[in-house]
Every structure is written in structure tokens, then in C-alpha cells.
């Protein structure tokens, strides 16, 4: 959790135990949310890592860096009630 920060930095290491044969059919999804204790959490963006078979080297650690893709914002507005005829 990064509190009161409009430009957080994530320097994290993740280790996943997946059989090499399963890498072609796997996708890793990282999601970043704006956490609010009093309302729903808003998705800020996400990273999808596909083609894991092509990215992995079983003899070496692999470092992979991507920008977080923003989620299109949908805004709703309350419409006034329509009068019946």
C-alpha cells in the first residue's frame, strides 16, 4: 500500500512455481487498485504478461519491466426521471 502518493514506485520481486510445459497456456495479470475504506476500490491499471514460454529461461532469472496500462474511465451521470404521458 502506497499512501498519499500520486506516483508510486513498485520495486517488487515475484516468484511463481509453474511447470515449464504449462508456460504456453499461462498469463500473469497484475492489477493496481485505488483503495478506499469507505467505498469500492477503483482499478487504476493492469499489466498482462503473455508468451511466458518465450520470455523464460530456465537457466537464468528473468527481469521483465512493463508500464501499467490505464483502464478507460467510464463516468455515469444520473438522469432525471421521465414523466409518463
TrEMBL record:
<dbReference type="GO" id="GO:0017156">
    <property type="term" value="P:calcium-ion regulated exocytosis"/>
</dbReference>
<dbReference type="GO" id="GO:0070382">
    <property type="term" value="C:exocytic vesicle"/>
</dbReference>
<dbReference type="GO" id="GO:0005544">
    <property type="term" value="F:calcium-dependent phospholipid binding"/>
</dbReference>
<dbReference type="Pfam" id="PF00168">
    <property type="entry name" value="C2"/>
</dbReference>
<dbReference type="GO" id="GO:0005509">
    <property type="term" value="F:calcium ion binding"/>
</dbReference>
<feature type="domain" description="C2">
    <location>
        <begin position="1"/>
        <end position="66"/>
    </location>
</feature>
<dbReference type="GO" id="GO:0000149">
    <property type="term" value="F:SNARE binding"/>
</dbReference>
<dbReference type="InterPro" id="IPR001565">
    <property type="entry name" value="Synaptotagmin"/>
</dbReference>
<dbReference type="InterPro" id="IPR035892">
    <property type="entry name" value="C2_domain_sf"/>
</dbReference>
<dbReference type="GO" id="GO:0005886">
    <property type="term" value="C:plasma membrane"/>
</dbReference>
<dbReference type="GO" id="GO:0030276">
    <property type="term" value="F:clathrin binding"/>
</dbReference>
<protein>
    <submittedName>
        <fullName>Synaptotagmin-10</fullName>
    </submittedName>
</protein>
<dbReference type="InterPro" id="IPR000008">
    <property type="entry name" value="C2_dom"/>
</dbReference>
<keyword id="KW-0677">Repeat</keyword>
<dbReference type="GO" id="GO:0001786">
    <property type="term" value="F:phosphatidylserine binding"/>
</dbReference>
Amino acid at each position: 500500500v502506497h499512501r498519499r502518493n500520486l506516483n508510486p514506485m513498485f520495486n517488487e520481486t515475484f516468484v511463481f512455481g509453474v511447470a515449464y510445459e504449462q508456460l504456453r497456456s499461462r498469463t500473469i495479470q497484475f492489477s493496481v487498485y485505488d483503495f478506499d475504506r469507505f467505498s469500492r476500490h477503483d482499478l487504476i491499471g493492469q499489466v498482462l504478461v503473455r508468451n511466458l514460454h518465450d520470455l523464460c529461461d530456465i537457466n537464468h532469472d528473468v527481469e521483465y519491466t512493463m508500464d501499467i496500462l490505464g483502464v478507460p474511465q467510464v463516468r455515469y451521470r444520473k438522469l432525471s426521471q421521465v414523466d409518463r404521458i
